[in-house]
UniProtKB/TrEMBL annotation:
<dbReference type="Pfam" id="PF09127">
    <property type="entry name" value="Leuk-A4-hydro_C"/>
</dbReference>
<dbReference type="GO" id="GO:0008270">
    <property type="term" value="F:zinc ion binding"/>
</dbReference>
<feature type="binding site">
    <location>
        <begin position="584"/>
        <end position="586"/>
    </location>
    <ligand>
        <name>a peptide</name>
    </ligand>
</feature>
<dbReference type="InterPro" id="IPR001930">
    <property type="entry name" value="Peptidase_M1"/>
</dbReference>
<keyword id="KW-0862">Zinc</keyword>
<dbReference type="InterPro" id="IPR034015">
    <property type="entry name" value="M1_LTA4H"/>
</dbReference>
<dbReference type="GO" id="GO:0008237">
    <property type="term" value="F:metallopeptidase activity"/>
</dbReference>
<feature type="active site" description="Proton acceptor">
    <location>
        <position position="327"/>
    </location>
</feature>
<dbReference type="InterPro" id="IPR016024">
    <property type="entry name" value="ARM-type_fold"/>
</dbReference>
<dbReference type="InterPro" id="IPR014782">
    <property type="entry name" value="Peptidase_M1_dom"/>
</dbReference>
<dbReference type="InterPro" id="IPR049980">
    <property type="entry name" value="LTA4H_cat"/>
</dbReference>
<keyword id="KW-0732">Signal</keyword>
<dbReference type="InterPro" id="IPR015211">
    <property type="entry name" value="Peptidase_M1_C"/>
</dbReference>
<keyword id="KW-0479">Metal-binding</keyword>
<comment type="similarity">
    <text>Belongs to the peptidase M1 family.</text>
</comment>
<feature type="domain" description="Peptidase M1 leukotriene A4 hydrolase/aminopeptidase C-terminal">
    <location>
        <begin position="505"/>
        <end position="629"/>
    </location>
</feature>
<dbReference type="Pfam" id="PF17900">
    <property type="entry name" value="Peptidase_M1_N"/>
</dbReference>
């Protein structure tokens, strides 16, 4: 479908307004076109694109997966919305091998791939003339940073290969030629072929049954008819099966772990219902999940209609399903309303972390929600103690050139901000405000300035109240404002008393009591232990509490981190096995960092293990750990 020509000049005019107010609500009866923000704070430095001149509105992929050569290739057909005087469109690419570009009639178009910029890729500039529909024939590099090709032995089944993608923040340009910026939302569709018996899933709605091509391959078709940030286009393929949870929810996983995965996420349909009751309808149709092999670098990724999950959250008791609640909450904050630039990542992660906690409260009760919020707040305090309360990286909004002080700011300080507002104005009033924020900006990009103005207009009842709420201070200033709502100290009263007792007399909790504690309580205890312990003290803790044998990876990680920091030799084999199996950066990077900090004892261990495990890690994990261990190719 083509946009109405008469609307083009109005739609793409560069103005000083926040959004393109003249834009029609849709380019056709089927495809929505999201606005482009044009204020200075919405200019994305991570893209080569010039969306005010020419922008991608729709991507149609026709790709083949080649597991023998670790390649994906085919064509990407792009619909373009451009100013009448636009003669070129600039796309993002990183290692793409482009063989040909044509217009909708098959006429050759000139293109050029510019100089590569480290961490950003290279601009793909196409001379489009009057063309508003172009076809790019290309192949992605086998080392494409978004993709991880797994050999059969890296999977639970051990018989078939596996592929998954991870596009956030700007990695999808390594396998899709488009404008890879969160502020340039696009609808998309895909036809993907793969060898039998592998199944393919994507972050779009599967269209019918796979088509048998008669050559040992099948074709899968997907559609995403809502405009999404391009980092949310995702793919996975492997020996996977599906099991329903509810009428619109289900889980994919390798057959060997499907039973465990299905049991762990059995509360998902109820989570969707509670999320809708809080902040409005779920607008994406289905909510399915796939539990990936352990090489996946994150806890989860909120790809629309198909959340990607690490198997490390499977604890056998649903104690770590806050991860599922978090990724589900992204269906509103992040996917529905998306940060226009990465400097405003807290609009995704901070708002989502608050929303996650509200879902946990509804499903598992106030005590668990309070405890998990307290763990989150402790992470903020730890970060501020490390970097300083006035460090620029501790502000929620991060202007270009300033690096965030880490996830405790983007996720936890953002959640603490909303929790404070709820405390100040009351839950009923706060919920009404947050729901209207999602409704009024659905399928659109947003900035810190936009939510700040929205809070002043629709949450605060006066300028005086806006000042009292310290809205600007929370968003733009470092540290924690004085009005921060602190967690209830009673949330961990029993655990903190036990940790204090251990710190004083080395009294270890009884094994029976330990087993009755929640995972949040066990994590809190481990975090509160003295940082310097002898080998005998560590051995006693392990014997009494079964720390090295736990099936909860969050707890195991904390135990290994503590043990390695104290040069506890018996923990090394367990750490090596853990690092060989798990690719989640949250666990992998800190453990290698801990070993490296232990000098002559730990550095050789870290380098020996990393030399073996590095090939099994996703590019996201490798990129962070390479710096820690000083890896040289």
């Amino acid at each position: 479908m083509r946009p109405i020509a008469a609307a083009l000049s109005l739609l793409l005019a560069t103005t000083a307004c926040t959004t393109m107010d003249a834009q029609p609500p849709a380019v056709s009866a089927e495809r929505l076109v999201a606005p482009i923000l044009t204020t200075p704070d919405a200019v994305d430095s991570s893209t080569f694109a010039q969306p005010q001149v020419a922008r991608v509105t729709h991507v149609a992929l026709d790709l083949a997966l080649d597991f023998e050569r670790d390649r994906v290739g085919g064509t990407a057909t792009l619909d373009i919305l451009a100013r009448p005087d636009a003669s070129q469109i600039v796309l993002d690419s990183d290692g793409l091998q482009v063989s040909r570009v044509t217009d909708g009639r098959g006429n050759e178009l000139d293109f050029d791939i510019g100089e590569r910029v480290e961490g950003k890729g290279a601009p793909l500039t196409i001379t489009i003339g009057n063309a508003r529909h172009i076809v790019i024939a290309y192949t992605a590099n086998p080392q494409a940073s978004a993709l991880q090709w797994l050999d059969p032995e890296q999977t639970a089944g051990g018989e078939y290969p596996f592929l998954f993608s991870q596009g956030q923040a700007i990695l999808n340009r390594s396998w899709i030629p488009t404008q890879d910026s969160p502020g340039i939302r696009q609808t998309w569709e895909a036809r993907v072929t793969a060898p039998k018996p592998l199944d393919v899933v994507m972050s779009g709605i599967l269209q019918g049954e796979p088509e048998d091509l008669g050559n040992g391959r099948r074709a899968f078709r997907f559609v995403m008819d809502k405009p999404v940030a391009p980092y949310l286009i995702a793919i996975a393929a492997g020996d996977i099966d599906f099991r329903a949870i509810g009428p619109r929810t289900g889980v994919w996983a390798e057959p060997a772990i499907l039973d465990r995965a299905h049991w762990e996420v059995a509360d998902t349909e109820d989570m969707v219902k509670e999320a809708e009751a809080l902040y409005g309808p779920y607008r994406w149709g289905r909510y399915d999940m796939i539990v990936l092999p352990p090489a996946f670098p994150f806890g989860g990724m909120e790809n629309p209609v198909m959340t990607f999950l690490t198997p490390t959250f499977i604890a056998g008791d649903r104690s770590l399903t806050g991860l599922v609640a978090h990724e589900l909450a992204h269906s509103w904050s992040g996917n529905l309303v998306t940060n226009a630039v990465w400097a405003d990542s807290w609009l995704n992660e901070g708002v989502t972390s608050y929303f996650e906690n509200r879902i946990i409260e509804e499903i598992y009760g106030e005590k668990r929600a309070e405890q998990e919020a307290a763990l989150s707040f402790a992470a903020i305090e730890d970060t501020l103690a490390e970097v300083g309360t006035d460090a620029p990286g501790t502000a929620l909004h991060q202007p270009d050139g300033t690096d965030s002080a880490g996830s405790a700011i983007v996720y936890d300080k953002g959640a603490a901000f909303l929790r404070t507002l709820e405390h100040e104005v009351g839950r009923e009033r706060f919920d009404a405000w947050l729901r209207q924020w999602f409704d009024n900006h659905a399928f659109e990009p947003a900035t810190s300035a936009m939510i700040y103005e929205d809070m002043r207009k629709n949450l605060a009842r006066s300028e005086a109240e806006a000042e009292r709420l310290r809205l600007r201070e929370w968003i733009y200033e470092p540290g924690l404002p004085a009005n921060v709502a602190r967690p209830d100290p009673a949330a961990f009263a029993t655990v903190d008393a036990a940790a204090a007792a251990y710190g004083g007399s080395r009294a270890i909790p009884a094994a029976a009591a330990w087993r009755k504690w929640s995972s949040a309580e066990r994590q809190r205890f481990l975090q509160k232990l003295p940082q310097e312990l002898s080998a005998e003290e560590l051995a006693q803790l392990d014997r009494q509490l079964g720390l090295a044998a736990t099936g909860n990876n969050e707890e195991l990680f904390l135990w290994l981190e503590l043990a390695l920091a104290n040069r506890y030799e018996p923990a090394v084999p367990k750490a090596e096995a853990f690092l060989a199996e798990v690719g989640r950066a949250k666990f992998v990077r800190p453990l290698f960092a801990t070993l490296m900090e232990e000098g002559e004892w730990g550095r050789p261990i870290a380098q020996r293990i990393y030399a073996k495990t590095r090939p099994s890690y996703h590019a996201v994990t490798r990129g962070s750990v390479d710096k820690v261990v000083g890896w040289k190719e």
